[in-house]
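Quick one, tokens below:
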């Protein structure tokens, strides 16, 4: 099972596709206290075929990467920013970022920022934050919307609450399911 998270094209025509690839046939988030998926980045251009495509696995040691997105910088490099969870409960505990050199496709400037208690207090709303057995973080209903990367090196990440729900109806013979 594959879930596309982001597609970005730079000025040279390179395409950066970030996707979540689950182990097995079902979209299961964890297995044996480790992620049951990998978030990957594939880089393709007009010269790419199945034998020379560039694949990068995005990972932070034991943390669960929950989502990622990308944006082309002014110099043509690509910044990848995403959210991570320290546990399989998937509360979002912070953000990570890395840059990819547009010419060499090499990864550089990898960083990770854990949300502080002050950050979580600022977002505090019974629907936004979770506290359970000493663990705290944002609930899993946030989606990465935009990345702004400034000349002074500052990064602004815009997250948005993202809910999906399924409505089912029965007409006497069949069930219909619609997901919003």
């Amino acid at each position: 099972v594959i879930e596309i998270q982001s597609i970005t094209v730079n000025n040279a025509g390179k395409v950066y596709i970030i996707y979540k690839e689950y182990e097995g046939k079902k979209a299961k988030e964890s297995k044996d206290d480790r992620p049951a998926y990998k978030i990957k980045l594939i880089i393709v251009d007009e010269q790419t075929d199945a034998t020379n495509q560039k694949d990068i696995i995005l990972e932070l040691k034991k943390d669960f990467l929950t989502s990622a997105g990308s944006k082309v910088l002014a110099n043509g490099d690509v910044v990848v920013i995403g959210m991570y969870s320290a546990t399989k409960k998937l509360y979002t505990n912070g953000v990570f970022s890395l840059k990819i050199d547009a010419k060499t496709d090499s990864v550089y400037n990898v960083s990770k920022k854990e949300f502080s208690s002050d950050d979580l207090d600022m977002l505090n709303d019974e629907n936004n934050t979770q506290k359970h057995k000493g663990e705290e973080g944002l609930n899993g209903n946030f989606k990465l919307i935009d990345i702004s990367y400034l000349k002074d090196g500052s990064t602004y990440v815009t997250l948005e609450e993202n809910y999906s729900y399924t409505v089912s109806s029965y007409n006497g013979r069949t069930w219909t399911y619609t997901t919003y």
